[in-house]
Automatic annotation (TrEMBL):
It holds the Pfam family SBP_bac_1. It comes from Streptomyces zingiberis. This is Extracellular solute-binding protein. It comes from the Bacteria. The lineage of its organism: Bacteria, Bacillati, Actinomycetota, Actinomycetes, Kitasatosporales. Residues 1-27 form the signal peptide. Keywords: Signal.
Length: 436
């Protein structure tokens, strides 16, 4: 999944494009040979973060930290959709960051395999305050090979089922609470001349959200957990086939209209259809609220509603589970010269001042005690809905294209798009995925 207003992924469309500045900053690191392995000079920590509107939170944290620490932190903001490529290129060289922003899962799996990251599991085990500082499902989502390599450092980004209150009111309909409700609403809105679900099918990542939730509800979170762990045969699980068949059924019913394959997200295509009463619902990441607030503020005030993805009849999954981006994480380079100080810095993400800055920035923090702060959020009702949904979730499945390494994620996205476009049958889809 990718989005234009949030640090969704290394292959995302960048919100900020000051590439020349970033390239100069990166080239300067170690260019005179004075930098230690791990990216920083002795007595300094070089911290890399994906540059966007949220970096002011990290800037403030660095300023507070440096006031009391003998070892100083230097924050390098890396803009552009090549963030992950820059990290991969730098790791293992004298120019590597000591601490860096990432998405967990597949985004750091290769580093874990090469013993390039600090295993934080002992720290979480001996420091109950650290482990208890964050919502458990989000901490768990940052694991690789059942070990902790990341400390949550930004807001949560669950996938939410948004609905247009105005369209629902005109149709005399209510938000879906069951899968039968979803199927009935498809017929209702088609009869009203409204597309039931906006879908930006010009890219595969909005379609992936549907596949993620359907598999979670049908087979439970453990099916993808097997896939993520490298069990290719898990793609042959009956729940995967039923998921693909459900996608076929939705397409055949007209759930997404007829032109979804040419609708985009980065140019606000699907979101505009939704906001202009031409679509009733939109399954999208939590950043959809910010996108709509920026581009269609009146729609947010008057008509934007939200709810959870419903259960599937006879499904094994817990309807409280969620999918999306649990958060972003800080990881520590195993070659960092100042590891004790690095650990102190990443723990700053649980400090009250840091959490307060996240809320002021419009984020929903992942800390276990953030609820009391959400009343001061710019959209408290929406923030509280997100927080309660995630806090109650027994599992928070990381977006598959972030959980899997690129060599598997990219062909997976291609196959999903072919499934939605009718170029692969449900059975052919599962066979293609087992082939990965």
């Amino acid at each position: 999944m990718r989005n234009i207003l949030s640090p969704r992924g290394g292959r995302a469309v960048a919100a900020i494009t000051a590439t020349i500045v970033a390239s100069s900053a990166l080239a300067a690191c170690g260019s005179d040979g004075s930098e230690a392995a791990g990216g920083g000079k002795e007595g300094t920590l070089n911290v890399w973060v994906y540059q966007d509107a949220s970096t002011k939170v990290q800037e403030a944290a660095v300023e507070r930290f440096n006031k009391t620490s003998d070892v100083k932190v230097k924050l390098t903001q890396v803009p552009g959709d090549s963030y992950q490529d820059k990290v991969r290129t730098a790791m293992g060289t004298p120019n590597a960051p000591d601490i860096f922003f990432n998405w967990g899962g597949g985004s750091i799996a290769n580093f874990v395999e090469k013993d390039m990251l600090v295993d934080l599991t002992p720290e979480f085990e001996k420091d109950p305050k650290l482990k208890g500082a964050f919502i458990q499902s989000i901490v768990e989502a940052g694991k690789v090979n059942d070990k902790f390599y990341g400390v949550p450092m930004r807001g949560m980004q669950p996938v939410i089922l948004f609905y247009n209150k105005n369209v629902f009111e005109k149709a005399g309909a209510e938000p879906p609470e069951s899968w039968d409700d979803v199927l009935a609403l498809i017929d209702t809105f088609k009869g009203e001349g409204v597309t039931p679900f906006a879908l930006a099918g010009a890219d595969a990542w909005p379609e992936l959200m549907w596949v993620e939730y359907l598999l979670d509800r049908i087979g439970g979170a453990e099916v993808f957990q097997r896939i993520q762990s490298g069990d290719a045969e898990a793609w042959g699980d009956p729940a995967v086939l039923k998921t693909a068949q459900t996608v076929e059924d939705l397409v055949d019913r007209g759930a997404f209209g007829k032109n979804y394959a040419s609708v985009n997200y980065t140019e606000d295509g699907a979101s505009t259809l939704f906001a202009k009463d031409r679509a009733a619902m939109h399954l999208m990441g939590s950043w959809e609220f910010a996108n709509q607030k920026s581009n269609q503020p009146d729609f947010v005030k008057e008509s934007l509603g939200w709810t959870a993805f419903p259960a599937i009849p006879d499904g094994k999954g817990d309807p409280k589970s969620v999918v999306g981006n649990p958060t972003n994480y800080w990881s520590i380079n195993a070659e960092a010269k100042e590891q004790e100080t690095a650990l102190e810095f990443v723990k700053f993400a649980a400090e009250e001042a840091y959490v307060g800055d996240l809320v002021d920035n419009g984020d929903v923090p992942t800390t276990s005690d953030a609820e009391e702060r959400l009343a001061s959020h710019s959209a408290p009702e929406y923030a509280e809905f997100q927080y309660e949904m995630v806090k109650a979730a027994p599992d928070f499945t990381l977006s598959w294209d972030q959980a899997l390494p690129a060599q598997k994620a990219d062909p997976m996205l291609t196959n999903i798009q072919k499934l939605f476009n009718g170029q692969l049958s449900a059975k052919d889809f599962t066979e293609a995925m087992k082939g990965l």
